[in-house]
Amino acid sequence: MTAQASVSKLQSHLPTATIGYPRIGKNRELKKALEAYWQGKLEPATLLTTAQEIARSNWNSQVAAGIDEIGVGDMSLYDPMLDWSVRLGIVPDRFSHLHGLERYFAMARGQEGVPALEMTKWFDTNYHYLVPEVGDRWQEADFSDFLEQVQQAQQEIGDRAIPIVIGPGTFLRLSRLLVNQEVVADRLAERYATLLNHLKDLGVKGVQLHEPALVLGDAPQFQPLYQRLYQQLTQVGLPLHLVTYFDDLGEAYPWAVQLPVASISLDFTRGRNLELLKEHGFPEDKILGVGLIDARNVWAIQPNTVLDKLQAIRAIAPQIKLQPSASLQFVPYDVRREVKLPEPLRNVLSFAEQKLAELQLLKAYWEGDTTSHTRIQELEAHWRAFQGFSPANPKVQAQLKSLTPQDFERPAPYSDRQKYQVQLPPLPTTTIGSFPQTLEIRQLRVKLKRGEITQAEYEAAIDAEIAKCIRCQEEAGLDVLVHGEFERTDMVEFFGQQLCGFAFTEHGWVQSYGSRCVRPPIIYGDIERPQPMTLREFKVAQSLTQKPVKGMLTGPVTMLNWSFPRSDIPRSEQAFQIALALRQEVADLEAAGAKIIQIDEPALREGLPLKPERWSEYLTWAVDAFRLAAGVAQAATQIHTHMCYSEFGDIIDHIQRLDADVLSIENSRSNNETLFEITDAGYSHQVGNGVYDVHSPAVPSVEQIVAQLKTGLAHLPIEQIWVNPDCGLKTRRWEEVIPALKNMVAASKKLRAELQQQSS
């Protein structure tokens, strides 16, 4: 149907739907249960009951909000991609001797001598998923846990329950394939058909098949695969609801909307789906799922903008349902709990429960409910009040306008800088930055917040932890030390709390992976650094050792990507504002004696647009933001950066342009692929080859680390190689950290000796 469709042909009732919900629990019940279970303090049955209770609470919240079709079955103990790998019988041989939860968590976290599945970012989000490894030997499929979830939902909320399943195309695209793709696709089709038959027997009205891989730039080349898969699955006779999100369908739009499904969901908050809809129309025999409520950010809808877009969509698609743009797992639960935020800011924020209410508001407006007009007018008034609350900062705006090309350049090229920088032995050892955040450290912050200890007492306790950390590193024999970051709750939150323009929640937790939850800051205004942020702790640490201590900063792009940014200000401008603040911090650390400063950018690759044609614009300003932060450093100051759980091969030229002296990478879970991507491209700067997996409780042996380092030496000159864990040690225990670091240093020294012997 074209844009000239008459209003008389449009539906009078507008159904609402959800396509996923936060699953950590309103008070992080899942995190607490998981960590207690891993420590042997919680029985398996109690862990499973906790997950069931969270799922039930989620369903009831959506029922209370009046949602017509509620996505169910997305509850997970660790990660849905891992869940579907196990359910489909895709379990690598190294885990075949394990069973039940032991096998499940070994695949997620590893065991002694049994490495975990690779972990990487879920599209362009800060959520991490486990990468399935698909070989030629599969176990029997077992969907019993999923079917039980669906049955529980049916008992609780009736036929509103619509099962959520990761679609076969996306599962295939995101897996590590060790066998022919065609063979895997046929096997998957058979097992998905079996699953759909089970769901049909349960009497569900339909099933959501989530296919976000359809928005990737190379989706068109997979057209035959998707068409074959969906032709096979539609034979089951169960209505299929194809769900896409995170971007537009691009060149795949014309054939993707013709797949044999009952409905297709599109994200109208990102990309060009509205333009594609206007250009190509939409099939009359399908329902369009309209993702108008932004599931990736916490800002309330701006009514006039959203209603204009809805009107344009409804003039084209004859049958629609209204829903969030993606799963609501990317936002916190309920903004009403945030009583300490300024009133003007709270009134324009929208978390999961508020986004459900926004769906109902738009539904009411569509259906002619006059009371909705009052609420829309209130929202418009709230936005006007917020704009008065957060005006532009003239000082920051002037700094941005005065930037010159020289501000983005180091004072000398890399090849010249090396001779001025700190001299270290071959294969120098260090860590990424953080050390264990124990219960005692977390309680210190609670006591300070409650006024039970003074600031001076708190700092004295932190200084004692820094001294312990320095002692530990010196005893282990590390070459370059860190202070341990005990004063930091989170690598973004810590800095944001000291910058103007950031706001923080008390209960705004979202899942990053497994039991790891973060509380993203909210960027609400221009960003400025009132005073130094890291100098005190750096000075304490450096005073305790003769070895160099790294100054530790979080980079501007990571701070932006791991926050909820303003949606009405260009992301590039917000990144540059953060970079200016960090630039001041780099200068202060250098003046305080820091010879090495690390500016972490683990989220640089994560923020890459999903369409390659948009990469250049993003990478230009993202790399420039890093260069702006680091450009103030003198040639003698060694700049490090850290990136993890990303693929670098296709952006290696831009990583080179960062001009960091040392790049440390996650490499232990990627089967050295990350290292090979860098070395194959001829990367010329130094590389910290992540030699062991910090997300596993297993302590690596000296032999394992030596083997990892030898792989690095086979691809890089020894002068380019640093030795470090693959990420920070914050989530590990001291009894795991100390032996792991000692083994890492022993491995480095062993190789140094071997290489010296060979050369003599």
Q: Would you kindly provide a written description of the structure presented here, covering whatever features stand out?
A:
The protein has 760 residues and is α/β, with parallel strands linked by helices. It has two domains: 7-132 and 139-332, Alpha-Beta Barrel (TIM Barrel), CATH 3.20.20.210; 424-603 and 618-754, TIM Barrel. It is built from 27 helices and 21 strands. The strands form six sheets. Strands 1-5-7-8-9-10-11 form a seven-stranded parallel β-sheet. A six-stranded parallel β-sheet has the order 16-17-18-19-20-21. Strands 2-3 form a two-stranded antiparallel ribbon. The protein starts with 28 loop residues before the first helix and ends with a helix.
| Domain module tally | 2
Termini Cα gap: 79 Å
User: Whole-number average pLDDT?
Assistant: 94
Structural class computed from helices and strand pairing: alpha/beta
Task: Return residue spans where pLDDT drops below 50 for at least 5 consecutive residues.
Answer: 1-10
Biggest sheet strand order reads: 1-5-7-8-9-10-11
Using the coordinates shown, work out and report the CATH topology of the largest domain: TIM Barrel
Architecture per CATH nomenclature, i.e. the level-2 architecture of the largest domain = Alpha-Beta Barrel
In the CATH scheme, the class of the largest domain would be: Alpha Beta
Radius of gyration: 26 Å
Number of helices: 27
Cα shape: globular
Instruction: Please indicate the percent range of residues in DSSP E strands (runs of 2 or more).
Output: 5-15%
User: How many beta-strand elements?
Assistant: 21
Tell me about the largest β-sheet: 7 strands, parallel
Q: Provide the helix percentage.
A: 40-55%
